[in-house]
Specification:
With 181 residues, this protein is α+β, with helices and mostly antiparallel strands. The protein has 4 helices and 6 strands. It has helices spanning 24-32, 125-129, 154-166, 168-179; strands spanning 6-14, 48-53, 58-63, 77-80, 83-86, 135-143. The strands form 3 sheets. Strands 1-6 form a two-stranded antiparallel sheet. The N and C termini lie far apart (58 Å). The relative contact order is 0.21.
């Protein structure tokens, strides 16, 4: 019998029909990731954002995904349950066409880390505070790839993009200012 290697995939599922646009998820996320933890609330530092269009009753929570150096070409419109959503409504990428998921002080891209901490939380903070139950946390087991792919770390990708945009001297100056108490 050949046993296959598996891994646990953590996901936050979104029910767009339940989201009320209260933005409690944004507040909880920014408080959890504040330095020191829970010392401030700043939704601009949140790794989840609620894309809102009140006129069309559109509220879509999206989580910060990978950084992309250029914006996409797609501007498709999707109709779900009679409501129209732009492609950007579902995109978690940190891209040049909008300021979502960019850390306001450093300009570094943010990415959802599922509120990883020690000790581990039973579920991410955004799910915990969602009174409308629009966000649910699930873990599922999937087969691992036979060949592990080499993946660059988030810090390397973020620093490289900042250096490409602002130059190494500007990035070093910002880092030295941020590291001073």
């Amino acid at each position: 019998m050949n046993a296959r290697a598996t891994k646990i995939v953590k996901e936050i599922k979104v029910d767009i029909n339940k989201c009320t646009g209260c933005r409690a998820c944004e507040m909880a996320c920014s408080a959890f990731h504040a330095k020191p933890k829970y010392s401030s609330i700043n939704p601009a530092r949140s790794r989840i954002r609620v894309v809102t269009d009140e006129l069309n009753d559109e509220y879509v929570p999206i989580r910060a995904g990978d950084y992309t150096p250029s914006e996409c070409n797609g501007r498709h419109i999707y109709t779900i349950n009679g409501k129209q959503y732009s492609e950007c409504s579902f995109c978690g990428a940190s891209c040049p066409s909008r300021d979502y998921f960019i850390e306001p002080d450093s300009g570094l891209p943010l990415k959802c880390d599922m509120c990883e901490s020690v000790p581990a939380l039973p579920e991410p903070m955004c799910v915990k505070v969602c009174g409308a139950e629009a966000l649910t946390y699930v873990e599922r087991e999937v087969e691992r790839d036979e060949k592990p792919q080499e993946k660059r770390g988030q810090i390397e990708v973020g620093l490289e993009s900042l250096i490409n945009q602002y130059g190494v001297d500007a990035v070093m100056d910002s880092l030295s200012r941020m590291s001073k108490p």
